[in-house]
Amino acid sequence: MVRLPALGQTDRVLLTVTTTHRPATDLGFLLHKHPDRVQEFQQSFGTVTVFYPEATEERCTVALLLDVDPVRLARSRARNAPDFSLAQYVNDRSYAASSLLGVAMADVFSTARSGRCNSRQELADTAIPLEIVLPVLPCRGGPDVAHRIFTPLGWSVEAEPIPLDPAFADWGDSRYVRLRLSGVLRLADALNQLHVLLPVLDESKHYWQGPDEVDKLLRSGEGWLASHPEADLITRRYLGRRGSLTRVGLARLAELSDDVTESIAPADDEEVQQPAERRVPLNTQRHDAVHQVLLDLGARSVIDLGCGPGQFVERLVQTASFTRVAGSDVSTRSLQQAARRLRLDRMTERQAERVELFQGALTYEDDRYAGFDAAVLMEVIEHVDPQRLDAVERVVFGVARPRAVIVTTPNREYNVLYEHLIGMRHPDHRFEWSRDEFATWSERVAATHGYTVERRGIGELHTTHGTPTQMAIFTRTEANDE
């Protein structure tokens, strides 16, 4: 066996996999990498070295060492990839597990990930004791997120936070953890899980993501992702929180398992950058707030404009006092998801008469928008190009003219409280308003179209920055009632 430095003597060993299955050296057959050899593999961003620090019948460990070349990484960046300027050259990629490691591992261990092993196929199909160690792993959300993601997969998880500087305890912990996983799994399953979950924990991919990313996710997640309790979180993070990809990914997962039906809820893209402990409560608070306003207004007919896959429409349908409910969206895929969520094909004829879903663009007049007591635009206007916002105002307030309009949108001032957030809360947002900007817009719209307006906050109130979501309740004045 080749003698190499002990694991603790190099900062660049990013991944080790150990088994105590006997004979343990069969790990070499499963990985298609002989324990007596050191092998190097060239990647567009650096060099991968695979070697075995220990290889006996009782215990065998394979180490994957990734040496990142920042210049090669920068040169390999696709033309349409985001430009992070100096961050292309000054980063933690050479020393921490990341999407780079996930890509390298997927390539080097591609046959093992497929579960094929001609000489030991029965072993490849068998769950064996495994221990995986990642000495330095970026983990947004800390050890708790690592436990939430790996424990449901059958792993025993040890996630030890790494201090910013051991010499200065008051500085606290860094965003890195030392992760140790132990469990009894098929090696192919373990490697595929790592391929997906390394960039999920890091929440930063080094390459541009195209439409094929959804296919990659579903292939690597086959057999475990659809039933994972954190499937929504994993999908959003793996797909870089890109709204279009995420919606497709969640929809396709929903088709695989009824367990993730809730995951095809509206993307809530503007809030996914929040800490996990705040993410769901804010979504719930927003739906609760709008629902309560509709009840207080005494509305009987409601249309959700930009309804997405229909989470809020479903809540409206479940409320008996709303005798007519409609949802409209520009995306036919979202409307198909909404129809599945509402189980329209299983409704009685009488129930179906109460509900309507249709495709429409808010920048164009549509008779179907008219005749409702209330209209809801929940986290919609920030996705409209500013130069087209006047058209939306005219269609909703000037032509459709419901008795009430409820609008919610992110509060830009609150963004400073979101760790690691740079720019707007979601790449599809065309703008985000401060409270003063929202007030100016809502007052102008109300005065122009004959409405009064009341503004409220939704979510946790910060004394300086306000609430994460701001809401405007427009009510048509009596003089303008038809």
Number of helices in the DSSP assignment: 16
CATH architecture field of the largest domain: 3-Layer(aba) Sandwich
Strand order of the largest sheet: 2-3-4-1-5-7-6
Largest beta-sheet characterization: 7 strands, antiparallel
Which class of the largest domain in CATH terms? Alpha Beta
Estimate the mean pLDDT confidence: 81
- Which series of helices and strands comes N to C? EHEEEHHHHEHEEHHHHHEHEHHEEHEHEE
Q: Give the termini distance in whole angstroms.
A: 88 Å
- CATH superfamily descriptor of the largest domain: Vaccinia Virus protein VP39
Shape: elongated
* Share in β-strands: 15-25%
Structural class: alpha/beta
Radius of gyration: 26 Å
Question: Regions with pLDDT < 50 over 5+ consecutive residues?
Answer: 1-11, 78-91, 257-280
Overall tally of domains: 2
How would you describe this structure in keywords?
disordered N terminus, 7-stranded mixed β-sheet, 2 domains, c-terminal autoproteolytic domain of nucleoporin nup98, 7-stranded antiparallel β-sheet, 482 residues, alpha/beta, Rossmann fold, elongated
Describe this structure in words.
32% of the residues lie in helices and 22% in strands. With 482 residues, it is an alpha/beta fold. The protein has 2 domains: 202 residues, 2-Layer Sandwich (c-terminal autoproteolytic domain of nucleoporin nup98), CATH 3.30.1610; 205 residues, Vaccinia Virus protein VP39 (Rossmann fold), CATH 3.40.50.150. It has a 7-stranded antiparallel β-sheet. Strand 8, helix 12 and strand 9 form a beta-alpha-beta unit. Helix 7 crosses helix 9. The protein is elongated and about 85 Å long. The N terminus is likely disordered.
